[in-house]
Predict the 3D structure of the following.
Amino acid sequence: MKKDTGKAKKETVGVCVRCGKSIRFDEAIIIDEKLYCKECAEKIKMDEEKSKKLHKSVKNRMLGGVCGGLGEYFNIDPTIVRVIFAILLFVPNLRFWFMPLIYLLLWIIMPEE
Ligand SMILES: [Zn+2]
């Protein structure tokens, strides 16, 4: 038996595994079988969407946002990605259409942010 938690915490269903706050039944959100409060669940969702998905960047957009998106995904400066792309354009062993083709493929594959 649980000990008596009192009237005020009557509706409490558990404690948020992220911030430790007690959660009432109407604000409990379960992600991966863990209990989170509303605020933490939203933060986790946002973090996941930002970091895990490879997407065309809206913020770092120059051509199609592909370089910016790659930069954000790998956590490197989008400018560096563009420079790498530019350098690869002039690598003699690669055909001139190779990098634009890759860029085009990424642009088609990657979803909008
Ligand atoms: Zn929380």
Summary: The chain has two domains: 12-49, 66-109. The helical segments are 38-52, 66-74, 78-89, 98-109. The first strand starts at residue 12 and ends at 15. The CA atoms of residues 89 and 99 lie 6 Å apart.
